[in-house]
Amino acid sequence: MDTVSVRQFEEESARLRELIRDIKASLDDESFFNQHTRHVVELIKGLSRQVAEHFSLEEAGNCYAGSEAVTLELAGLADALRSEHRTLAAEIDGIVEQAESLVPDAVDSESSQRRIASRIRVYCRRLRDHERRENELLLQAYSEDVGVGD
């Protein structure tokens, strides 16, 4: 990745983290979701767009190139992480579809909101875990490439 790409990726990653914090805050206050359903749905749709941009930048910027060059084991881990992008993108798109079908003030709207809130919480944990494992992979590739004693 060149300097411009790294800066762009860092800015995008910061936006993704901020959006996740906003969604979490919105879901932590159940009455907020009940009263501002459309706003929360827009946040979830924004998360879908941000995740797509994030994964696109990772793949276009060839984030995994260093890890793939170091060892076959790291190359396998990079492939597994890259394949998770499709799964995570499809999952958030499914949550968006479910969220868009919410009808405020419907008889079952609160139970539907709770189901969506639960799904998005689980999704955010999975996404954070995915990002943590990517960071660990890159750090491991760097330390193995450069060498710990250098």
Provide an overview of this structure.
With 150 residues, the protein is an all-alpha fold. It has one domain (3-146): Four Helix Bundle (Hemerythrin (Met), subunit A) (Up-down Bundle), CATH 1.20.120. The chain contains 6 helices and no strands. The longest helix has 38 residues, at 109-146. The radius of gyration is 18 Å and the shape is elongated. 19% of the residues are buried. The mean pLDDT is 84.
Following the backbone from N to C, one meets helices and strands in this order, namely HHHHHH
Count up the helices: 6
Strand percent estimate? under 5%
Give the low-confidence spans.
Answer: none
Outline of this structure?
With 150 residues, this protein is an all-alpha fold. The chain has helices spanning 3-28, 30-35, 37-60, 65-70, 72-100, 109-146.
Descriptive terms for the model:
150 residues, 0% strand, 6 helices, mainly alpha, Four Helix Bundle (Hemerythrin (Met), subunit A)
SSE blueprint:
Blueprint: H1 3-28, H2 30-35, H3 37-60, H4 65-70, H5 72-100, H6 109-146
Helix pairs in contact: 1-3, 3-5, 5-6
